[in-house]
User: Fold Deoxyribodipyrimidine photo-lyase from Yoonia maricola.
Amino acid sequence: MFEPTYTAALSRLNTFTPQAGRDYANKRNYDDVAHVSALSPYIRHRIITEKDVLQATLARHSPQAAEKFIQEVYWRTYWKGWLEMRPGVWAMYRADLQAALNRVQTESGLRHEWEAACKGETGIDCFDHWAKQLTETGYLHNHARMWFASIWIFTLRLPWTLGADFFMRHLLDGDPASNTLSWRWVGGLQTIGKTYLARPDNIIKYTEGRFRPKGLATFAAALEGTPHPDRGPLPVSGEIDSNVRTGLLITEEDLSPGWLLQQFRSRATATLLATPHRSPLAMNDKVNKFTHGALTDCVNRYAEQLGTVTDVTPETLDAWAKTHDLDQIVTSYLPIGPTRDALKNVKLVEVIRPYDAAAWPHATHGFFRFKEKIPGLLGKMQNKAA
Assistant:
C-alpha cells in the first residue's frame, strides 16, 4: 500500500490534490482511504515535506476551498511545536508506558485483555477489524484512530499509554507528537476535561453501515493525570561553521536533506535509523522495512551530493566522526521523540527548517488559536527555501 520512495509519494500527492478541496471537506470523515490523502507516512519522514504538500494543494485550490485539508496538514505541525515547548509530556508518557508494561507482566487479567485488544479479539467487530487492519497495513484512517482510542480507553478500560504504544509499534506514520498528544486528547488529558466518546451512531454513519457496534461505553470521564508542565522556550537552530570539517547525518526525521546540502559542503555522510527506539517492544516489521526503504531511497536520490555514506548507530556515530576527522556533524533538527532520545549524548549541529521555525512559536495554546495564524504562515512559507 505504501512504497517507501519519493516517486511513490509524489504520485500519491498528484493523485490526491484534485480532491483536496470541497471533496475532501465533505468526505474526509468516512472510513475510506479513498477520501483522504494517505500521505502521512511520507510526510512524517519528510520524504515529501509539508511545504511540498501545501504548495501542490494551493496550485489547484484556493486557501478557502482547501481549508480543511490545509488545517489537517498544520495539525501535525501544531502538535510538534506544542511538544517542543513541553518536552516533559513525552518523558511522562515514556515513564507511564514502562509502568503499564510492568503491570502487564504482573497482572494476568490486564495482560489477557491487552493481548486480546492488540490481536483484535475483543468481540467488538469494528475495533477488532481496525486492530488487524493496522497490524497488516501499517495504516488507519484518522477517524478510525479516534474511535479505536476511545474504545480502548473508555470501553475496554485499558491504560492509554499501552494503546499509544500499540499505534507507535505498527503505524508507518508513527509520530511521537501527533500520536501521543492525540491519545491524550481522546482521554481528556490534553484539553483538560475534554474527551472523545466513540458513539455507535457515528460509527454506523461514517463506516456506511459496515459496523454496528454494541456494548460501547456511553460516558467518557476524563482520565486523571499530571497537569501540563509550564511552557518552556523553543529550541534554537544550530549555526553551521563553514570553516571547519563537516559531516552530514541523515535520520528518519528528515529524508529530504537537499535544503541542508545547499548550506555547506559535506566531507562524509552518516545514516541512522532509530525506528527500534519508538517502543520498548518489538516494532512491526512493516515499519522497519518502510523506514529502511525510505532511507535507501533518500541516499539514492542524493547520491551525487553525499559522497561516502556509512550506516551508523548512536553508539558508533562518534567513532565515524573521528574516522573522517570531522569537527562538526550537521543534521536536520531532531524533534522531541525517540530519535532525539537515542542521540542525546552526541554533539550535533541541529538546523531547524524555516517552515517549523515560523509555525512552532504559535503552538502556545490550543489549535483553534494556532489556526488563526495559518494564512500568515502560508504567506511566509511561499517565501522560504525549506
In short: The chain has three domains: 6-84+358-382, 88-206, 246-352.
